[in-house]
Design a protein that fits this description.
The protein is an alpha+beta fold. The chain has five helices and seven strands, in the order αβααββββββαα. It has a seven-stranded antiparallel sheet with strand order 1-7-6-5-4-3-2, sandwiched between helices.
Length: 166
């Protein structure tokens, strides 16, 4: 796993946040956890958050409207436009949202699903901002690196409940 941390550091550019995890689950199962809003709401977001999906048109050009609810009661509305959906390899979307009442944050997210043999999946989330300053502000304001890791921890727990170690 240490080698992946090195490659992750090398892969992250100055305008990006990259989080990665290997799951002991087939790629199609991990992809479906993202592609199905009924599964997505069970794990999406950092620890203590819940998510309400209002619209989920899972296709190129489709819209994803959601509200993440923080443990302190703060809402984080978000609208995303899917820019690329290739089952079971990639989900890309342009994201616009943030803390209710604050200025919106915008970035492009690309989630890739790499099969490692038949039973493992390397999932990589790459968030690209317009500038390094916007990326840094997102990390300071939203704790997005830790939040991304927590989200993948929640996905691992969700997959484990489905009977798959993650």
């Amino acid at each position: 796993m240490a080698a992946e941390r090195v490659s992750l550091a090398e892969a992250q550019g100055e305008r990006e946040i990259v989080v990665m995890r290997v799951f002991d689950a087939p790629r199609e199962m991990v992809f479906d956890a993202w592609a199905d809003p009924k599964q997505l709401v069970q794990w999406f977001g950092p620890e203590g958050f819940t998510t309400t999906v209002e619209t989920f048109e899972f296709r190129d050009g489709g819209e994803w409207v959601q509200v993440m609810h923080g443990p302190d009661g703060t809402n984080y509305p978000c609208t995303a436009m899917f820019t690329e959906v290739q089952r079971p390899e990639i989900i890309a979307y342009f994201n616009r949202g943030g803390r209710e009442g604050d200025e919106e944050v915008e970035f492009q997210s690309t989630v890739t699903f790499e099969a490692i043999g038949r039973e493992k999946t390397r999932l990589t989330i790459r968030m690209e901002f317009a500038s390094a300053e916007e990326r840094d502000e997102n990390v300071r304001t939203y704790g997005s690196i830790e939040g991304g890791q927590q989200t993948l921890n929640r996905l691992a727990a969700f997959l484990a409940k489905k009977g798959v170690a993650a």
